[in-house]
Design goal:
The complex is a heterodimer of chains A (112) and B (114).
Chain A: E1 4-7, E2 10-14, E3 19-25, E4 31-37, E5 44-49, E6 55-58, E7 61-65, E8 71-76, E9 85-92, E10 100-102, E11 106-111
Parallel strand pairs in A: 2-11
Antiparallel strand pairs in A: 1-3, 3-8, 4-5, 4-9, 6-7, 7-8, 9-10, 9-11
Chain B: E1 5-7, E2 10-13, E3 19-24, E4 31-37, E5 43-50, E6 65-69, E7 75-79, E8 88-95, E9 104-105, E10 109-113
Parallel strand pairs in B: 2-10
Antiparallel strand pairs in B: 1-3, 3-7, 4-5, 4-8, 6-7, 8-9, 8-10
Classes of the chains: A mainly beta (112), B mainly beta (114).
């Protein structure tokens, strides 16, 4: 299957710091999504990106769809303890939304 | 309900037994997906249903795995002759299908095969 390389694998930061994580692929994707998963829960959609170069914000979160369509990043500004969780990127090939490929996740730890 | 509902939330079974997992998607969502998530891993695509089209079964890992969906409603994922490597969280998601690429996930069914 398609490989999405997500980095970093884990992060330990201090409350108030900014965070950046990214996903890259050798394939061109038409959609990039960013999800957060809390323990024991299903992933929850944070940001959806549909156009190359698109920069979208959701509160303290900002994500961009790379111009090459092979990468995306997610930034979290002024982190707070409730930001703790696992963040997944997901990319979609084609236009039928029939299959999304997920990265292996970035585990974020925030120290108060 | 308002969200994707999955049952059971937890299932412990013995190796060799069959299990059935259920997913109730969001009303009006024509697309339904099953993913598998092993401990500490990302999500692995299993199968996709879109309306009355033939499902995309390309992610099913073996013929012990099968899934059905009745129209645009409930789906069941069946694992026959379970093996220990089948232990994982099985996540179901639904979306508006061709109108949207946004997946809404249930809380998952945690399967433990002893």
């Amino acid at each position: 299957g398609q490989q999405l390389n997500q980095s970093p694998q884990s992060m330990f930061i201090q409350e108030g710091e900014d965070v950046s994580m990214n996903c890259t692929s050798s394939s061109i994707f038409n959609t990039w999504l960013w999800y957060k998963q809390d323990p024991g829960e299903g992933p929850v959609l944070l940001i959806a990106l549909y156009k190359a170069g698109e920069l979208t914000s959701n509160g303290r979160l900002t994500a961009q769809f790379g111009i090459t369509r092979k990468d995306s990043f997610l930034n979290i500004s002024a982190s707070i303890p409730s930001d703790v969780g696992i963040y997944f990127c997901a990319g979609q090939l084609g236009y039928n939304f029939n299959k999304f490929y997920f990265g292996s996740g970035t585990k974020l730890n925030v120290k108060p | 309900g308002a969200g994707v509902s999955q049952s059971p939330s937890n299932k412990v079974t013995e190796k060799g037994k069959d299990v059935e997992l259920r997913c109730d998607p969001i009303s009006g969502h024509t697309a339904l997906y099953w993913y598998r998530q092993r401990l500490g891993q990302g999500l692995e695509f299993l199968i996709y249903f879109q309306g009355n089209s033939a499902p995309d079964k390309s992610g099913l890992p073996s013929d012990r795995f099968s899934a059905e969906r009745t129209g645009e409603s409930v789906s069941t994922l069946t694992i026959q002759r379970t093996q220990q490597e089948d232990s994982a969280v099985y996540l179901c998601a639904s979306s508006l299908g061709s109108q949207s690429g946004e997946l809404f996930f249930g809380e998952g069914s945690r399967l433990t095969v002893l």
